[in-house]
Design a protein that fits this description.
The complex is a heterodimer. By secondary structure, chain A is α+β, with helices and mostly antiparallel strands. Chain A has helices at about 5-35, 60-65, 100-105, 195-200; strands spanning about 45-55, 55-60, 65-70, 70-80, 85-100, 110-120, 130-145, 150-170, 175-185, 200-205, 205-215. The radius of gyration of chain A is 19 Å and the shape is elongated. Chain A starts with a helix and ends with a strand. The longest helix of chain B has 19 residues, at about 1-20. In chain B, about 10% of the residues lie in helices and about 50% in strands. In chain B, the strands form 4 sheets. Chain B has a 5-stranded mixed sheet with strand order 3-2-5-6-10. The chains are: A alpha+beta, B mainly beta. Chains A and B meet through helix 3 and strand 8 of A and strand 1, strand 3 and strand 4 of B.
Chain lengths: ~220, ~240
Amino acid sequence: MNNLALLNLNFKKFGAVFLFLLPLALYTQKNDQENQKPDYYYDVLGQVKIGFLVPSAYGNNFISEGYDTWNGVHIDAQIKLRERLLLGLQYQAFKGRVTDQELVGPIDASGITHFFATFGYALLEKRNNFQIEGNVGFGGVTLRNENGFRRFNDNGFAIMANVNFSYRLNYWLGFYLSVQNNWDFWSIERPSELDDIFGKTSFFMPSLGVKFYIL
Amino acid sequence: MKKALFGFCLLTLLAFKCENDIEFEDNQRLLLKAKLIDSESNPFGNVPVKVYATKQYGFDLEAAIRSDFGELIGSGVSDAQGNIAITALKPLNASNVYALINFYDSGFNGFKPGTAPLAFNFINEIDLKDNTYDIESIVLDRIEPFQLNTIRNTNQTDTLQYSWSYNAGVKILGDTDPYFYGGDVRENGFDELLPSEQINTHTFNTIESDTVLFEYNIINNGIVETGQLEIIVNEQSGSFEFEF
């Protein structure tokens, strides 16, 4: 499948999730207009996001050149430190099938997991159902490789940056769209000739899903 | 009872499997580099290469060709210039690391017709430097017809009994002993030239860089002469005459 077809398919999947969330948004917006919201509505302790992840490796590296990546899951949880500051943890997981074993090695498939400690900043006023947040994260990446019945791992250090757009539907529920980029720095011991291929990977990691508010 | 039996079988199977199975090291990649050329130094492109590792000792060529001797750690195909650069996984506690070059998936046939497949066990032959096994050049030999003639010349009374052996199939390099577990790649023949016969001719295919072993006895009421010759194929021009 070429990149354009893959992009089109991912766009359709995003569209399906969006179409599922849209009626919910319209329904709760109608309710909001009818009901005056109390102050404590905005005094959230934290938030949890669970979403559909569409990873896309890019650049000249072993994952972009040697894997066909599948969609995955994005989970993050943050607590509010101050008015606009957020602190939390993020988990992203997806799988990839190896398409070039000459480049990657005889691996059938790999599970790719990112963990981050995240620091966020809310850009808009808190008394606003629409919110924009910027986040950075520091953490790790793990590749769980499958070769028949054998399993072995590759690990590395990872950083990320994202911008989140969210809309609050009611007291506890909203939806979000995240545009994220991950940069991985692998600890794989490799020949110097393979430094470019196995040293770093980059992912564009957009995700779309629901956001739970903890009051 | 059935569960217990199933559990016992599973544990036995796992124990047996783990004993010989190769595990891979975390956070490690190897590179296997080589250049495939023919005997006239021309590059050999589009030749399949598979690299295996095993904990087992010795070298069982027949099992290796069946992909039943160790685990695949890397595979690839040479480019148009004959270059190979295969990313491989790093095996733990391997006794043999070997490459099978120019093989079909199974059997002793060459992927390239007329060219001998090659088995190279390089674990004790090539140092791992910078996580790289650099094999440099590997010559893939042609398989050529060879004619062995026994000719009666001055001796008109004695019988010549003789045998010959030749490599019809696989070129072996490195720390491999194809005789250790079977998998003998050499073929044998036996014949005699009676006093009533002037010439015998035998034609067979063999590897151009290999040798034909020729052993003979000249008999006349007992052995009057015995001998052994090692004929280097590419020093002959397609045939060898033994005259007596």
